Amino acid sequence: MAGDFQSRDEGFMREALDLAFESMDLGEVPVGALIVVDGKVVGRGGNRCIGNLDPTAHAEIIALRDASKSLGNYRLPGAELFVTLEPCTMCVGAIIHARIKRVVFAALDSRSGAVCSCFETFDQKYHNHHVKWAHGLLAEESGNLLRSFFLERR
């Protein structure tokens, strides 16, 4: 059973990586995110900060907005988020407010990661909603994509 869960999660993370590649093709930092409810993708997002002229247009925020529209609710209880990079403080806050049940992210973000790298925001006791999280799934692929993107820009 655990193998099935890992395989399921990997499939969703691969789809998030595809969204990251789409972002990169648009000149955006390559991050992709999916929202899944009951095994079905209900929201997709890739970074669009540059194209949208919007500092809040991170992949997670775009995916949350898409899922909220799809489901007709700004709360997404029971939803899972798959994202290729550790969420920042803004995204963690939005994830908590949306009542996401679980977050799975690929690569750590040593500069602004707010799950475990720089801050442990999900694990604070004072939140009224607690999010389960895991990291490392396809971390190498995601990290390589990000590194190659930034090397090309230098």
What characteristics describe this protein?
5 helices, single chain, 154 residues, globular, alpha/beta
Question: How many beta strands in the DSSP annotation?
Answer: 5
Strand ordering within the main sheet = 2-1-3-4-5
Low-confidence stretches: none
Shape: globular
Radius of gyration: 14 Å
**pLDDT average, as an integer?**
95
Content-based structural category: alpha/beta
What fraction, in percent, of the residue positions are helical? 40-55%
Summarize the SSE layout with pairings.
Layout: H1 2-25, E1 32-37, E2 40-46, H2 49-52, H3 59-71, E3 80-85, H4 89-98, E4 102-107, E5 132-135, H5 139-153
Parallel strand pairs: 3-4, 4-5
Antiparallel strand pairs: 1-2, 1-3
Outline the structure in words.
The protein is an alpha/beta fold. About 45% of the residues lie in helices and about 20% in strands. The longest helix has 24 residues, at about 1-25. It is globular and about 40 Å long.
